[in-house]
Amino acid sequence: MSKFPPELIRNFSIIAHIDHGKSTLADRLLEETGVLTGKNNRSQFLDKLKVEQERGITVKAQTCAMFYTTDDGKTYLLNLIDTPGHVDFNYEVSRSLAACSSVLLLVDSSQGVQAQTLANYYLAIEQDLTIIPIMTKIDQQSSQPDVISAQMEQLLGVENKDILPISAKTGINCDQVIPRIIENGSKPSGLVEAPLKALLFDSWYDEYFGVICMVYVVDGQLKIGQTLISAYTKKAYEILQVGIMHPEQVVTNALFTGQVGYIVCNMRTAAEARVGDTLYRKDQPIDKPLPGFKPAKPMVFAGVFPLDSENDFDKLKDTIEKLCLTDSSVHITRENSGALGMGFRCGFLGLLHMDVFKQRLEQEFGTETIITTPTVVYKVAYADGKEKLVENPNEFPDSFMTRKNGLSANDAVAVYEPIVVATIVCPEKYFLSVINLCNERRGEQKDIVNIDEDRVSIHYIMPLNEIIHDFFDRLKSLTQGYATLDYEESGYQQTEMVKLNVMINKESVDALSFIVPKDQSQFKAREIVEKLRKQISRQMYEVSIQCAVGVKVIASETLKAFRKDVTAKCYGGDITRKRKLLDKQKEGKKKMKQIGSVHIPQEAFLSVFKVDDGK
């Protein structure tokens, strides 16, 4: 590939709310530039992961280089980054925007501006990117171009004349998108003659090459054979291969100012490929590295354990490290559970993020796991004034001291739970249903804004613990799929929380510990034991399922034993014969109960934190 000057390069991303047509538009742009042909043409081409194709959503940001020649004979290099739209993958969007100068902001012409549209819009504004507004799906019968254009003017601050109406499905006006990018998009602002500064913004693992890094060359140039230094680890790496994604890996031997591509340089572990790191040449030291990214802040924590902790732990460790190369937003620490053995405590950006992570472990690496009840990070205050962040329910205090005198330094005196500001956009006719749901989940109304005649934007301050479980599913169900949700953290608030300990045959199952509001503990405990009774198989002995707060049992269920009729062959005779057989059976069951173990299926762990519809 020949050298492209920065003025002939356009690095852009496609951002929007989920299901507003990002991947479909990406397909049209790839077709327009000849990247997609009859041989490799398939819908949503950049959604390469199996989980993306099955769920119909973008999970992983993907990059592709395109070449486009204008009528005046100039050939431009266009680097496209397709990004996710769901709130759980917001970190993917923020990383991708760091390698861009412009964004295509898509808005569905029938659904209008949604919660995540605004969230991504503000991300682009923060990074001072040029915004190119596009209205999609204008071919649909439900399309309202005039109404949605007015919305975009009001909420996004764009002018009506700048909004490009298209239909990526039918191709209407799609041929105008690339000229609009070239004309209105910004060129890279790097310095060609300056020392090399390359931003590492993504990576993945290859069986033969090890870690492959996606980089954005901010200043200078990067060539095969150079020795690079990591500003983070200070380690040196020799560049073995350089190339671009077009759409797969194409070797170019060099990357110049403003270009986006990949490098192979003998990195072997996830710890070395730190997202946001600055790479520079060994013979050209730099004064200051690039600012990088804010670390992803996990919102939901859960334990991830192999089915066989003795034999499969090392395999799970290896696969999680490889998967974290493509998903650097996951926070990983080791954990040891009395019930499940060795595993990991993983922090995720949301419940969908956790579910996708588990599915990718199974599909991409063939690793089956057990994931424990998800929880959020609580802040516990102690009598000596110190505070501790608790992300594992097993570390949560069993009780809180309320007396003023006689407290020891280790006594817990208060607990604070994380709260978020939730933004819900929905049709006005579902307004009361959404309000009732938010109030039911301990929400506090902040304000309500009328977007237009038919839609409202509702802002609530809510405990994160109430959001992470089934809130989104219930919201979609109540509004027939029309409501959208976005949320951002807003600190902590003091509340009364207790830890529910689940016990099977008097033995505590630490993997099923649950933190709930004190006033909901009785109801939650009753719900948990009922669900476990349905999920755990009957044994040859009686199984006791209990839920306790501290030492006090507040809910209990009993799983009856399988009963064999040991007196079936006793035809008449003295009653003592039957009693002798029954006593013998009773002693056998008692002994079996003492040495027996109860298998708890994965479905039991999942059922504990799923709330039934209508509750």
Automatic annotation (TrEMBL):
SUPFAM superfamilies: EF-G C-terminal domain-like, P-loop containing nucleoside triphosphate hydrolases. One of its GO terms (molecular function) is mitochondrial ribosome binding. It catalyses: GTP + H2O = GDP + phosphate + H(+). GO terms for cellular component: mitochondrial inner membrane; mitochondrial matrix. One of its GO terms (biological process) is translation. GTP binds at residues 16-23, 82-86, 136-139. Residues 7-189 form the Tr-type G domain. InterPro entries: EF-4, EFG_III/V, EFG_V-like, G_TR_CS, LepA_C_sf, LepA_CTD, LepA_IV, P-loop_NTPase. This is Translation factor GUF1 homolog, mitochondrial.
